[in-house]
Amino acid sequence: MKAKVIMVQGTMSNSGKSFITAGLCRVFAQDGYRTAPFKSQNMALNSYITKDGLEMGRAQVMQAEAAGIEPAADMNPILLKPTSHTGSQVIVNGRVRGQMKAMDYFRHKTELIPDIMAAYERLSEAYDIIVIEGAGSPAEINLKENDIVNMGLAKMVDAPVLLVGDIDRGGVFASLYGTVKLLEPEEQERIRGLIINKFRGDLAILKPGVRMIEDLVNIPVVGVVPMEKIDIDDEDSLSEHLLAEEMTGGLDAAVIRLPHISNFTDFTVFERLEGVSLRYVDRVSKLGSPHLILIPGTKNTMADLRWMRNNGLEEQVIRLSGDGVTVMGICGGYQMMGNILSDSEGVEEGGRMAGMGLLPVETNFRKEKVRTRIHGEIRCGSWNGCLVEGYEIHMGDSRIEDEGILANDSRTEDDEIHVNDSRPDGLEHIGSSGEFSPWISLSDGRMDGAINRGETVMGTYLHGIFDDGDFFLRFIDTLMERYHLTEENGAASGGDRQKFSARRPDMKAYKEAEYDKLADLIRKSLDMEKIYEIMGGRPNV
User: Fold this and answer.
1) What's the CATH number for 250-488?
2) 499 beta partners
3) Of 205, 465, 471, 472, which sits 20 to 30 A from 7 (CA to CA)?
4) Are 361 and 434 in contact (CB under 8 A)?
């Protein structure tokens, strides 16, 4: 039997489509129905690797978690990962299909309809309810031709639509009305309910507007969702997490906010630990003197390193590393921290480029993407024996150079065959000294990453390394002791401070509780019986 279906579209990007979709997934799952999310085309740099080694958008991973099911690439058959303002890597069914300019993709996207429909049909056969998320706005009249993600998809799968408007930005009634009226009559008929999202204030004041918009478009408002802080993973660079710039106390962790930042969800666990302050920095004046600098993944390593070089962040990070500040890179950040970036195959922009020189690592970009879930064990230093797990998702491989070469490698461009964009003058010998070694022994026999003997400079390809409670808490403990910190940002008082690792908060339980909070909010705010009615009734299971 085919699944029931409901689709969530928005009047604009960041209206809360992902949030509402996740909430509906949780409610339906709580009601006893096998529920799956679906988004035919996602554009985001936050991605995830499934157990079978396929790549998909993080938003659908979060929604699958809310539904209590294992994420699968069928839930997001097309993923676009922007590499520039006009081009993206195109991923179809979890595998890289190629690099395309926006106009080329626009011309050829209908060729992907069979892939979209095949993925949807597989889900429809396996689940009772499919909750579809649209993208952007269905009223982008320049993009409506051959649409495969909003009303075009709704028509293909015969889905009724809930339209979400963001009242926090202002003009919610105008955006709802304008969106509806820019659609064709048959598209307007698909919209069966309106949702006003992110409301603050007295609902009684809003009710006259609700009645008027219902009369104007002849579509019922099925709920008003209040603005409420619920900690679930965000989809992309519009995330409010990236706006955090101020240190709030305790351990100061600064993430470099790269132009093409990806998988910043690697660091959200820092926000969930009392006594740790996480902020995002995109200029030298905001960096200050943190205890920990995190260089995240990126979809364009060479371009983002050049951005750091041009705005002075690279120079400052190197100098702070020399002063004993801990610096860690993940994926693209790890690549940047090495000595050389080599792109002979033109994966990014071609040529060779000097890295930051903090790690004795050379990276060679490859056209074939590494996609795998993996686990391993840290084999050195304070965290020796810690088990870690996560996923790799990168185009290229990195190796530690010959034994005895330190991070302070002083080679200049004269020693290389055309090394462009060399690191700032005078910094060849600045940075943490000490011998380096591979960091993590992986379950497939490979060694990953590099770390110095002082444990102040390190890098890894392993996304999700902080999600493991044991390593993350021991990592935080090490930094708190290194910098003589307490949770109140004062001096440590002997040994009476309880270590973070002794508490062992259950991050999985924390996330489940947040999904339950989201479901409670949806049930209180939306007319769920009306939504079941819009879907054609509850599934017969």
Assistant:
1) 3.40.50.880
2) none
3) 205
4) no
Give the type of residue at 306. R
Residues listed for the chain: 541
Domain 4-232+510-534: homologous superfamily in CATH = P-loop containing nucleotide triphosphate hydrolases (3.40.50.300)
| CA 351 – CA 305 distance, rounded (Å) | 14
Please measure the distance between the N-terminal and C-terminal CA atoms of the chain and give it in whole angstroms: 10
- Nearest CA to 330 out of 462, 443, 448, 442 is that of 462
pLDDT band at 105 (very low <50, low <70, confident <90, very high): confident
Catalytic: 463? yes
Domain ranges of the chain: 4-232+510-534, 250-488
**Residue 331 appears among annotated catalytic residues:** yes
| E strands, 302-369, in order | 326-330, 340-343, 351-354, 361-364
Common-topology check for domains 4-232+510-534 and 250-488: yes
**pTM of the predicted model as reported, rounded to 2 decimal places:** 0.81
226 — alpha (psi -120 to 50), left (phi > 0) or beta?
A: beta
Q: Pairing relation of β-strands 361-364 and 397-400?
A: antiparallel
Tokens standing for residue 146: 């051959």
Which residues, other chains included, contact 207 with Cβ-Cβ below 8 Å and sequence gap of 6+? none
pLDDT tens profile 118-152: 999 999 999 999 999 999 999 998 888 889 999 99
**Measured between alpha carbons, how far is 55 from 45 in angstroms, rounded to an integer?**
11
Higher pLDDT among residues 245 and 523, named by residue: 523
Which residue stretches of 366-459 are H helix?
none
User: Of the listed 260, 291, 394, 463, which one is catalytic?
Assistant: 463
38: nearest Cα among 110, 107, 129: 129
Measured CA to CA, the distance from residue 54 to residue 49 in angstroms comes to 5
Alpha carbon 528 to its chain centroid, in Å, reads: 30
Active-site annotation holder among 260, 291, 331, 386: 331
For the four alpha carbons of 515, 520, 522 and 523, in that order, the dihedral sign comes to: positive
